Amino acid sequence: MSRHLSRFQAFALGLLVVAGLALGAWGLFASGRNGLDRSAFAVEAGFDDIGGVDVGARVRIQGMDAGEVEAVTPPSAPGQKVRLRLRVAGRLRHLVTSGAHVEIASESLLSGKIVRIVPGSGEPVEDGAELAGIQATELAESVHEATIKLNKVLGEIDGTLHEFRTGQGTTGAITRDLSQATVKLNGVLAKIDSTLDGVEKGEGTLGQLVKNDNLYRELTDTISQVRTALAEVRSGEGTLGKLVKSNEVYAETLHSLQDVRKMVASVKQNADAIKALPVVRSYVVDAHKELIRPDCTRYRKWFPEAKLFEPGRAVLTADGKKALDEIASWLNEQKDSSQEVVVAGFADEKLNAEFALTLTQKQAEAVLDYLKSGHRIHRTGFWFWSNRAAKAIGVGNSPPPVPETQTLPPARIEVLVFVKSNE
């Protein structure tokens, strides 16, 4: 037998359900989002560049989920740091000490950014404490630098093999000296052989002396030993024989070097294949491919480093910004989406190679950011998709892909526009 609820009873039941839901929601809120309850505490850290980290990004300690980014505070003036406020679970307070520091990193090329708190020594920090912010090396930058180092080593090996084959340089000189020494030794051995024949026949002063029976027997034994040694030399046996037969050793060496060369070519192909992967190619830039485009018409302007930047830094000066204001007019005269703008940085060859690569990349990025933010050189129309490609590359102190026909300062910034010739 069923019983119907009165309006008052139905209203009371509904009110009870709503209250239960509200109580449950309050309980979830009180326990904290992502496991952060009332015992959670906050720490702060400052960074020059937060790499796209936003509110809600995960915070980890030794690989464990520890909390989230609670707030991002932009700098109040240029040159100051961006501040991150992290909310950390109270159960991990003993791991966050005064000696800990904060890093921003990518777990992989495909994942987003995370914030890591790296434990250190000292006592647990208080709520709102300041931790040191350390700029961690990006995974993509590590791939880029490793590829550059690998290509440099392979280039040196390739150059050594070229010297060996052509007889140039130190390696080539060793090859030539060995060949010349072999020819001279063979000539000396031929003269010794001819002299010994004359002695045996009694020819010449030494031959007449040998007619003495006692001396003849002694010299015959000696001649026999010398002939045995010569036979070993001619057959390539013994230490001296192997040296005389160095042409064979040389051939074997060349064969081995050809195998090494094949290996080098294979490694280079693998390195190129890695750089061409869809994800990696957006991080690893091949300066040769970016600066050499036979299918395009190239337009170029350049500046000495000292005209744009503070010495040895990637900070634009007031005069440098004025110079870029002038070149922005040139860039904006005629533009469409088929063009591409490339800003390339070059460094003096006297600088350390790794430092030069980092410096020129940062300088090129600084120039491109100024031209884009201040003059919109990448925009070709009203719509948000109306853009032309624009990128910054650091060449370091590597020589230009193609020898220059004009004298340029070694430390410089080049602004280039590539236009497809068939457009």
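Above is the first protein from milestone M3; the second protein from the same milestone is given next.
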Amino acid sequence: MTFVDSHCHLDFPELAPKLPALLEAMRVARVAHALCISVDLGEWSRVHALATGHRELYATVGTHPDYPDVDEPDVATLVERATRPKVVGIGETGLDYYRLTGDLAWQRERFRTHIRAAREANKPLVVHTRSAADDTLAILREERARDAGGVMHCFTETWDVASAAIDLGFHISFSGIVSFRNAAALHEVARRVPLDRMLIETDSPYLAPVPHRGRTNEPAWVVQVAEAIARLRGIGVETVAAATSANFYRLFSIDPDAA
């Protein structure tokens, strides 16, 4: 039984100095691979270096929706970097109306750029949405994101949003929030998402699952996310591990044996 962390930020300052210990903790916890997510093209080389320097790690390329004061990514740059070794996805992209206010047209255009790049590169999208579900789904439809596919990461929306995303060909990824006692609506989503469309993640260094809540999160703790989902569904954790790992490798076109 092995697990995969489909979304983490090992280049962030909370985690980067501890990388050897984090990789060893992954090994002990049987977390076979982790996907290091790009949030700023200006810092992308650090994310890519993690992936190329460690067999357990992969990378994406993209700019987060709530980073306003950075160089805007263009389709050509995203597509070119998506061809680099061990780059398996486009993002983190999407919409976030929670942290930023005012005219966010630039955010929507950035999202469209990432979707167009994903379609051209034939790489899946890693989508962040917060307080923006309607616009997120509308843009995914308008830009034919189904052609690329992808994942709604750190999902916290309703079952209706999850169902609509699944209909668009997307996977639903659960973070440590699913282990929180007060996340009743998310618990219902976790019970209903088909196992073949589910991923698990840490979003580390954030959102550590119970019993680590409040601490700096790390990829090894994705095991507790799987355990929380298994309890909610009344199934064995090995079933969640097998399904989410297989989904990850299929979505991101990774051969786990070669990896």
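Note on the second protein: The first helix runs from residue 19 to 29.
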